[in-house]
């Protein structure tokens, strides 16, 4: 009976953690528009990427539930900054102005990632997957920072 209660308590904490994450998303949505206007979109995008990565890595190594919940709040806050600022900077212009084709492309990329994530959760574990994904994201960020703004000479 005690193990069933612990399982139920863990399920309730999982639901609360998801709610806390989306509360962070809501506060990020209210904040990043004005922050981007004040400090610049490119700077806020880089701050969102770096801080989101740091909060997500820290949440993977959290030791208490309260620490995990607070870090997930700030991860949601930063992820909203990434989504809002990158959407404004790209202006959904990957396929001209067709928002539907852009969203279709996002879905075709994200769906296989989500399905492979469910498979790998059982085989590898949540922490290893999260740390690996964040390291790849950090490497991509570093590459984007190092590439100059103008046209690359090999592309012309």
UniProtKB/TrEMBL annotation:
Pfam (any one): MFS_1
Residue ranges of the TM segments: 16-36, 43-61, 67-85, 129-147
Membrane association type: Multi-pass membrane protein
GO cellular component, one term: membrane
Keyword Membrane: yes
InterPro entries the UniProt entry points to: MFS, MFS_dom, MFS_trans_sf
GO molecular function, one term: transmembrane transporter activity
Localization of this protein: Membrane
Keywords tagged on the record: Membrane, Transmembrane, Transmembrane helix
Domain Major facilitator superfamily (MFS) profile: from-to ranges: 1-156
Keyword set includes Metal-binding: no
Superkingdom to which the source organism belongs: Eukaryota
Full protein name: Major facilitator superfamily (MFS) profile domain-containing protein
Organism: Acanthochromis polyacanthus
Lineage: Eukaryota, Metazoa, Chordata, Craniata, Vertebrata
